[in-house]
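Tutorial handout. Part one gives the primary structure; part two gives the three-dimensional structure as tokens.
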Amino acid sequence: MQGRRMKNRGPVQKPKNLKGTVRRLYVYLKPYRFRLLLVVIGVMLTSLASVTGTAFLRPIFNNHIVPLIGQKSPDLSGFIRLLILLACVYAVGILSNFLYSRQMVRITANVLDRIRTDLFRHMETLPIRYFDTHTNGDLMSRYTNDIDSLREMISRGIPQLISSLITVTGVFFVMVFMSPLLTIMILSMLGLMILIVRVIGGKSGKFFMERQKQIGSVNGFIEEMITGQKVVKVFCHEEQSIADFEALNTKLCQADTSANIFANILMPIIGNLSHMNYALTAAAGGALVIAGLLDIGTIASFLQYSRTFTQPITQSSQQINSILLALAGAERIFEMMDEDSEVDEGYVSLVNASTDADGAIRESDTYTGRWAWRHPHSATGDVTYTPLEGDVRFYDVTFGYNENKAVLHDISLYAKPGQKIAFVGATGAGKTTISNLINRFYDVPDGKIRYDGININKIRKADLRRSLAMVLQDTQLFTGTVRDNIRYGKLDATDEEIVRAAKLANAHGFIMRLPDGYDTMLTTNGANLSQGQRQLLAIARAAVANAPVLILDEATSSIDTHTEKQIERGMDKLMHGRTTFVIAHRLSTVRNADAIMVLEQGRIIERGDHSDLIAQHGKYYELYTGALELS
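Part two.
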């Protein structure tokens, strides 16, 4: 199927930077230079065996078949020796083909393995903004369609193109030697065929790029539908989903049809012209034989060479198209690799700390259970240590996901160590954005955020995020055991720490009822668990991190009221002594917060504890008493 698809792709647009893309691909092929040289030698031997084998037709006809016609007791020894020699030539070609094909498979597998690894490694360094502005389908197409195009090019396209060049060159000189007149005749017809390829094939070029784009859209939509199948069914959205898919599929069909409408008629036209060329060559050759200007063996070999000569040339356009398509895919892969990694100019790091007898904080090489910020000062050359306590403060922070539209306006707030700060407000008010800024998923262009008195931009992102634990509304579990998913919060956590964290989140009970307990395998984002159970595992994952700052973004939204009450004590233990930011729609979960911030359109319009806000009879009072619904 892959081979047939490649034949019908037709001419495509060149990559924007063809030389640069080829140069970068060569970097991946460079370690296999010696193997590639062997491949080229193998291709040459295969092509030369084919050309040489055809040349044997001339002596077979002239020296053996024609002279032996009519003889009653012909001597076939010379004929048999020639056939054995011909068989040896073809055997060399077959063996060479097998060896270079096997070698190319290995080279291709290794090269694509390195490209996928480098692509994934770089993807892991990209900022959240990149994933927010690119669809999953588009990103997945780099790993699927574009990688598959590269596989086809490296394993087949390039060897076939080299083989075609060698074959055409060798056959051309042999044909000129045999009959210059017939060679001119074939070249004339070949010129007509190439002109047709350029005119007809060129018309489909732009549509193939459009087709690749539409394939990405269709794949992205299918992925969304597979992931959200429960939502689709619960809202009876099947018909609308089908209609939306049909609209995208129609666009893909139109682009595919436009691209292939010329490409698919190209090969029949070229094929018929090739047959016509063969017939005209045979007629002209027969006339030359009758006139005594050529012999039977020469015309037999020449006719076979004419097919061997025209076929690679007519197919080379398809081979070049598949190579250009693969290079365009490689360019998309390299474009993703060239995306700027997440910038981190922080120089304040998180270290294990201990306290001397005089109360001074010192850095420790071993785990102490205490942490401090190691802050080097370039001006003086000194290094100071600040205890990690979880004091977070915003000063006049204004932020927008794009420059023209601010989401937060002049936000100022503080959370002292151990305090519980809650954010409430309608969807889009900016609650989650605040948590994104604390994590430095996005950097603040205007205003400041200080963490334990240190400008957050000075802290290394990895160290900053190590000091935070986060529970998201949309729980993401990974393929692996329950134990592995909890350990995601702290990769060096012991089994005892995992069990303790699960008990703290009140997840231990249901885990032990699973078929293999903590060793139960989870797949498809924990599809064999309830939504509440998945959320409990996410809470346990945060608990095992044992971070001083905890961010709960709708952490209990998927847990029923009964379960919520059951884990309330565990959550209180989890939050005890930690600075906690709670984003909640369910206002019952924030009643005991030290401070509640009511946000509206990116601004804090009310602040205070539960009693203060109820007494104010403002927006929070309306939300709490049900006079106003959160939406």
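Part three, for discussion. The two ends are 50 Å apart (CA to CA). The first helix runs from residue 2 to 7.
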